[in-house]
Amino acid sequence: MDKDLERFVEYCKIDTQSNDTSDATPSEAKELNLTKLLYKQLKEMGLEAEIDQYGRLYSKLPGEKGLDVIGLNSHVDTALEVSGKNVKPQLISSYEGGVIKLNDEYSMSPSDFPRLKNYIGSDLIVTSGDTLLGGDDKAGVSIIMEVISYYVSHPEEKHHPIAILFTPDEEIGRGPEHFDAKKFGADYAYTVDGADVDMIEDENFNAAHADIVIEGVSIHPGEAKGKMINALRLCNEFDASLDPDAKPEYTSGREGFNHLMAMNGTAEKASMHYIIRNHDMDLLQKQKDEFVSIKHRLEAKYPKAKINLDIVDDYKNMHEVFLKDPRAVEHADEVFASLGITARHEPIRGGTDGATFSFNGCPTPNLGTGSYNHHGRFEYLSVKDYRKMIEIVKAIVKA
Ligand SMILES: [Zn+2]
């Protein structure tokens, strides 16, 4: 196996699954097993590196003086949906286009995953069917390490000063916690945490969430006529009053949604939890206003019920940062064009650690990795796309 693939496989085999029920930082100590290996490898290459008290690894490769310091970031943890323990990556050499048997129970076929047809004749790395692969985001980690290793072993090749940051806990939304922009020291940066190699992701959702608690009036059902107010039914009425089309299952592209994630309770007291998303801040505000006006209407209709509504903002669309400081996006566009790649810009229908970095003074769009079908057993790495990404990131930091 070639060295760049050996590196990827080595990282995939380390179990770094984060834990959304833990308050520790990092959420799982085992995430540090990869972080410590990266630290050792960076030190062996002669870089200065530091793992801070929060398990974030900062490192620097000096480059040409006077050029922007370009940051590169990826996360060491893997998703929670499928086990990340005993990952046994399998190399498919020169994929023939048929069904890939992962194990006795699971197979991947181009009829379920049509993108596989793009890779006929090239190599893939797949799972053994019982775990995820961890390409999200060990492909990103590997790409960054390959780029650093390349410039360290080619001192004649001029490049920008490079700042490196490896974070834990991205999958549980805690990756950008404790982000120290000063310590990172980048003028702008890139997260290497997407999929498609031609994508520059420079927009994400604006996000808020709403918690609603409704107290009804509980009375023996035999004597309830005209008196009972059933909190569960009020929850239903509340939900049915929201824009019926603004739901995740009916929206795509730049359309926002209100997603009812949880509904719990009894006839006496019930609660609902929504996440509210829109790329456009004004439209997000309209969605939030809709919650407030429904609350007021139901309070007027059922004066004996108690309706508590709590709306909290979570994260913002980083696009607004790039409007003021477009350097990172423009630089990526130029590099893609110089490599003959037509860059695609599509809004992320979710969040990204880069959004928090961007609002903390370091504009950070997201690039691809060449790994696909994240968060599950059907995850795979396209070796040719992975190598293309190594070339792209090399070109991004090239002087
Ligand atoms: Zn990721």
Describe the structure.
The chain has helices at residues 3-12, 31-44, 135-153, 181-184, 231-241, 281-301, 319-324, 327-338, 353-359, 383-397; strands spanning 48-51, 57-61, 70-75, 90-92, 100-101, 107-108, 124-126, 162-167, 188-192, 200-201, 206-215, 257-265, 269-278, 306-315, 366-367, 371-372, 380-382. It starts with a helix and ends with a helix. The chain has 10 helices and 17 strands. The protein has 2 domains: 3-203 and 317-397, 3-Layer(aba) Sandwich (Aminopeptidase); 206-315, 2-Layer Sandwich (Alpha-Beta Plaits). The model has no long low-confidence stretch (mean pLDDT 97). Strand 16 (371-372) and strand 17 form a beta hairpin. It has a 7-stranded mixed sheet, with helices on both faces. A 4-stranded antiparallel sheet has the order 4-7-17-16. It has 399 residues and is of the alpha+beta class. The chain binds zinc ion.
Helix/strand layout:
Elements lengths: L2 H10 L18 H14 L3 E4 L5 E5 L8 E6 L14 E3 L7 E2 L5 E2 L15 E3 L8 H19 L8 E6 L13 H4 L3 E5 L7 E2 L4 E10 L15 H11 L15 E9 L3 E10 L2 H21 L4 E10 L3 H6 L2 H12 L14 H7 L6 E2 L3 E2 L7 E3 H15 L2
Parallel strand pairs: 3-8, 3-9, 9-15
Antiparallel strand pairs: 1-2, 2-8, 4-7, 5-6, 7-17, 10-15, 11-13, 11-14, 12-13, 16-17
Bound molecules: zinc ion.
Zinc ion binds next to helix 3.
